[in-house]
Design goal:
Blueprint (H helix, E strand, L loop, with lengths): L1 E9 L6 E11 L3 E9 L5 E7 L6 E7 L7 E4 L4 E4 L4 E3 L8 E4 H18 L4 H18 L5 E7 L5 E3 L4 E4 L2 H6 L11
Antiparallel strand pairs: 1-2, 2-3, 3-4, 5-10, 5-12, 6-9, 6-11, 7-8, 7-10
Helix pairs in contact: 1-2
């Protein structure tokens, strides 16, 4: 890792002097990244990982069962993850973070969110039933009784599913235009 820059700023919480540190590094499957961090004595902390590469917009797709749980999943800040069988679509937002996980890790994240939403909707019978049906589908995949599909679409091509079973194709311009990027842009004109 190379120390690239330090920029003086002001803490948004206490208004004391603060330094933002920017470091670049090369990460397998992500390419060049910029790490941004700042810490203040008042307790304010900030960190972000920004992918600096842009590749061709791509879709990765895999049909998975419990035998595929260790399959590596790389999701950049611009990647959209979808599991159609349970109606899950995780789109990037302004605070979207990149991560490296595996199929099981993604499924556990989704399961935890469905459990929480189901618990919150315990007074709404239809939503409660739906949540329990989705959890049952996940349990069937975990037990090896069913399979699901995981899709990652990335307009900047920095996400991937690393497996010989995964199918990769380029996205059309129309498909790319429909995707959220999670990127915040500022128009200074």
């Amino acid at each position: 890792m190379v120390d690239d820059a330090v920029i003086a700023s002001t803490c948004p919480l206490c208004a004391e002097a603060l330094q933002f540190k920017f470091n670049s590094d090369e990460i397998p499957y992500f390419g060049e990244i910029m790490l941004v961090s700042a810490t203040c004595a008042c307790g304010f902390k900030y960190s972000d990982t920004i992918t600096l590469n842009e590749r061709e917009a791509a879709r990765y797709e895999i049909e998975f069962g419990c035998d595929d749980f260790t399959t590596r999943v790389i999701r950049s800040t611009s990647g959209t993850i979808e599991i159609p069988e349970i109606g899950v679509k995780i789109e990037p937002g302004a605070a979207s973070e990149a991560f490296i996980s595996n199929v099981e890790g993604i499924l556990i994240r989704v399961e935890d969110i469905i459990k929480m939403a189901t618990k919150w909707s315990s007074t709404e019978p239809e939503k409660f039933k739906l949540g329990n049906r989705l959890l049952e589908k996940i349990n069937m995949v975990k037990a090896g009784e069913e399979k699901m599909t995981m899709i990652i679409d990335d307009p900047f091509g920095n996400s991937a599913i690393i497996s010989p079973k995964a199918y990769r194709r380029l996205l059309s311009e129309e498909e790319t235009q429909e995707l959220k990027t999670g990127t915040v842009t500022i128009d200074v004109s």
